[in-house]
Amino acid sequence: MSDTSKPRGCTNFKLRQITRLVTQRYDTELGKTGLKTTQYSLLSHIHSLGPVRPGELARAMRMDASTLTRNLRPLQDAGWVEVAAGDDARSRSVQLTESGRAKRQEAQRHWRMAQEALNERLGVEHVAALHALLDDTVRLLDADAGAAADADADAATAARP
């Protein structure tokens, strides 16, 4: 590999930088509904997978159980998410409430506006290439990516019109 084709700089820094820039755009639009991007994502995953066990939801979203619990709390407090008894005495189930479905639907319109604005700014071809590169990278880095990518695709599909 020649010096001109070697990566320059820190991959982690570059990823965090792009994540901050993209998140700011989505948070600005989704903030109009009172949600953060992470909360909308959580509502969408629950909508797509629910009712779902917390462990399955955490795996699908690639987060640890304590982070999931912390992120669910404000959604529960708002009455958008319900954590109830599961199939047996030891399990729990997470699902959207009626008001949670309504909040997700409201936020979905704003998510769509943010996505369309990003597509317009970067170009649809660029965004599609970026998605393909990111999906490929996830598969290379995570042996369990197949199942989680399916869940991500399901949640993304649920977020579309």
Keywords:
two-stranded antiparallel sheet; 161 residues; mainly alpha; 7 helices
Number of helices: 7
CA-atom Rg in angstroms = 17 Å
Which sheet architecture does the biggest sheet show? 2 strands, antiparallel
Low-pLDDT runs: none
Assign the structural class, choosing from mainly alpha, mainly beta, alpha/beta, alpha+beta, or little secondary structure.
mainly alpha
Helix share, percent:
55-70%
Mean pLDDT: 88
Strand content: 5-15%
| Cα shape | globular
**Succession of helices and strands:** HHHHEEHHH
What's the β-strand tally?
A: 2
Biggest sheet, strands in spatial order? 1-2
The span between the termini is 44 Å
SSE layout and pairings?
Elements: H1 11-30, H2 37-49, H3 54-61, H4 65-77, E1 81-85, E2 92-96, H5 98-122, H6 124-141, H7 145-159
Antiparallel strand pairs: 1-2
Helix pairs in contact: 1-5, 2-5, 2-7, 3-4, 5-6
Protein described:
There is one protein chain. The protein has a two-stranded antiparallel ribbon with strand order 1-2. The N and C termini lie far apart (44 Å). The protein is built from 7 helices and 2 strands. It has helices at 11-30, 37-49, 54-61, 65-77, 98-122, 124-141, 145-159; strands spanning 81-85, 92-96. Helix content is 70%, strand content 6%. It is mostly helical.
